[in-house]
Amino acid sequence: MTHLGLWFYLCINYVLSHKLNDVFTWKQLNYDINGVFCIPSTLNYVRLGDKSPSLHPYAAGTKLISVYRPRIDVCQRLWMVDTGLLEVPGERQQVQKPSIVIFDLKTDKQILKHELKDSDLFSERTSGGLTSITVDVNKSKCNEAFAYITDLATNSIVVFSLSTKTTWRIEDPSFVFDETALNFTVAGHTISWPDGIFSLALVDLNGRTMGYYHPLMSTNEYMIDTGYLKNNSFQGNAKLLGNRGPKTQSGSHAYHEKSKTIFFANVANDAILCWNVETKMAPENVAIAAQDHEKLVYISDLKVIGDEVWVLVNQIPRFVFSTLDTKEPNYFIHRSQVKNLIRGTVCDRKY
After folding, report:
1. What is the mean pLDDT of each run of 10 residues along the chain (351 residues)?
2. 158, 173 in Cβ contact below 8 A?
3. CA triplet 321, 180, 237: central angle to 5 degrees?
């Protein structure tokens, strides 16, 4: 894989540069200066080219509190969920209600902020679990977009309709973590987080948009016709596709249409997995496309951009359970051509 950036510690160009020692998830950067815990900037960008580029605040996003895994849609809009939760260790504070925020990348202006309703939030734990958003939209109908927000903490999907500016919460047993999939080891540390539904990947099957999803703590993969999400008739319509196999617990996943391949951020095995959707979901059809026990330790996000797979690595187990060594690289952005990742695997069907 090509290394687009690596960081020993994180620097942010925000008046001054400061050493950072916190989790990097395309999102907020926290730092401690003279005992005062601060968030200098929640949404940032980097200029590619330097080996270890500084992070620059996105000027339009200065009022954001806490954002994970933003997404760009085909209409050149940047979508995200601002959880409103200030995640200071030992002093978590809900500063404002969670909201959906959209920026127009052609103008770098905020075009929407939509607060979630009380009925979208199961408990005070819900906001911290709103860590992923998937945008379902046709380029010719930008104003008719839907967004699906996964809630890994209290096991739900919150659906948002852009045209009606309404939201609704969907719950299902398939969103809940699997107890038999707990307790895997990353960087020598045992992970037993009871995280539910983490990611939803959109796949076009014969003109119908399907949502493929899984809890973080599960090796099963499920599918739902997104029509059931859009009309709030989910119950009884989800399908268990099968099991990926042992040590395949994964966070984010995304679909590459040309190769008919879904790629998984396999956090349990420091790897990227691949699976061709035209084959049965079974261990023999799931392959390790890339693996590195140093540079792929906890892939916090994965995106398919054109014919490339991009991943962000933040080594969260080392941060949570021990101390990051600032003399060693700790955060990475990698990318690779799809054809190179699937070459020689069961996923390679000569697209």
Report:
1. 55 34 37 42 82 84 91 96 86 92 96 97 94 96 98 98 98 97 88 94 96 98 98 96 97 97 97 97 98 92 95 78 74 92 93 63
2. no
3. 115
